[in-house]
Amino acid sequence: MTDIAFAWTALGGDPALLPRATTVERPGLLAARLPVRRLARACVGACALAAAELAARRTGRGEVPGVRVDDGAVAAAFHSERLLRVDGRAPVSFAPLSRFWRTSDGWVRTHANYPHHRARLLDALRLPADAAPEAVAALLAGRTACGTEETVTAAGGLAVALRTPAQWGATEQAGQVAARPLVERAPLGAAAGRALPPLDPAAGTLLPAAGVRVLDLTRVLAGPVATRTLALLGADVLRVDAPWLPELPDQHADSDFGKRSATLDLGARGDTLEELLAGADVVVTGYRPGALDRFGLSPEALAERHPGLVVAQVSAWGAYGPWRERRGFDSLVQVATGIAAIEGSAEEPGALPAQALDHGTGYLLAAAVLRALTERSYDGVGRTARLALARTAHWLMDGVPYDTPEGHEAEGAAHGFPDAWLAETGSALGRLRHALPPVNFTGGPTDWARPPVPWGSDRAAWA
Questions:
Q1: Given 42, 47, 263, 356, which residue has the most CB atoms within 10 angstroms?
Q2: Over 236-267, what HEC string results?
Q3: Count of H helices and E strands in the chain?
């Protein structure tokens, strides 16, 4: 229970509730040199406990429902984007230019899944738009890893040089990350939060977030995992994307269960955004720190116009230090922080068995929102919660207790997860096989109320 206890304490949870959680351990899953399975169990367990706590608060029960954390369900959920099938078709995980490349002095990893990131990468390297991986490999073989990182980053692209833990620890960014708590939490503004109605404990499935309106301004992957979890728990989650930045189809199919999906130009004239904010209980953002401030979406600006809001933010590198404005993804954070060096070999770098930084941070972010809603129910005051993949990586490398080594699970490995942790459902996107949610408490939901809808198919308005 020490794993869940650390996460629960970081969320401000009452230690007296920890005995309500039980675990089913399944050695061999999420096998790695680093304690990935324990981190995953802790993040999901803390989220389930936060959900149970809010359920008890809203039903008026004196006792918090029991929580059960099954390593099998957790491991399946942490592989959700790989286990997804759409009409039997396996998803596309990484584009051809999203990979490791040998350089003259080491390795660099790039991320180019989105068309605009691919374009920036090739522009930075002065290669044509139709350049093949072979052309990129030949060019980077003659360049340094850090030089490539600097060039591509300056052009708004994504490239990170492989570092050892010691090399990362020597950077200013690593020092800034290590100095922050795992979950940064604080009250926000005056007491004016919308009171949530009580829940009927005899009404059937307990949905602790029922009636909560969540404005979802996130993209791959931690933010969507958080809001997908809030949707599971009954929240009305409206994901809003820019019309010119469509989500990758397989990412949308995996991460947007239970949500509605709309498009909106945040900078356009009109009252739509302000109307959404006025009706929201929670705003979740997943862009670079400060990137949405020009739209009046900083926590301070939101609290001034809409007191009582819960504002949750997630980023790759944190809202501090020299890397605060850099773009980033789980795979790149692993490379920068030394995880890829730890999980690799003398011949080449490696990776965690799942996008564990994304998924783990996502469940912690959902837990932070649930805890903020519980706290707001007492005093009406909004809350901020801020997490970073790099801070979760620091916890994984220097905080989560180690298990006995169990070997190493290759990146992208196939898994024969039993049907107990998978489900199939029809949808407008096709027949979907998906991982079931791992957040489990007595009386709570076991699956999402509805499958993902076509991207951008809903109105930008509350139901």
A1: 47
A2: EEEEEECCCCCCCHHHHHHHCCCCEEEECCCC
A3: 17, 15
Helix (H) / strand (E) containing 365: helix 356-379
Cβ within 8 Å of residue 179, ≥6 positions away: none
Beta strands in 225-380 (DSSP E): 236-241, 260-263, 282-285, 310-315
CA angle at 165 for the pair 287 and 285, rounded to the nearest 5°: 10
Q: In what order do the strands lie in the sheet with 159-161?
A: 100-102, 107-110, 159-161
Contact 417, 76 (CB under 8 A): yes
Q: Give the residue-averaged pLDDT of 446-463.
A: 97
Distance CA 433, CA 231 (A): 18
Tokens representing 334 are 């692993």
CA distance 155 to 289: 18
Q: What angle do CA 160, 166, 168 make, to 5 degrees?
A: 30
**pLDDT tens-place string over residues 202-240:** 888 999 999 999 999 999 899 999 999 999 999 999 999
Specify whether the CB–CB gap between 413 and 357 falls below 8 A: no
Q: 98 with 111: CB under 8 angstroms?
A: yes
pLDDT band at 395 (very low <50, low <70, confident <90, very high): very high
CA 369/CA 309 separation, integer angstroms: 11
Taking residue 9's Cβ as centre, other Cβ atoms within 10 Å add up to 16
Angle between helices 389-397 and 356-379 (to 10 degrees): 110
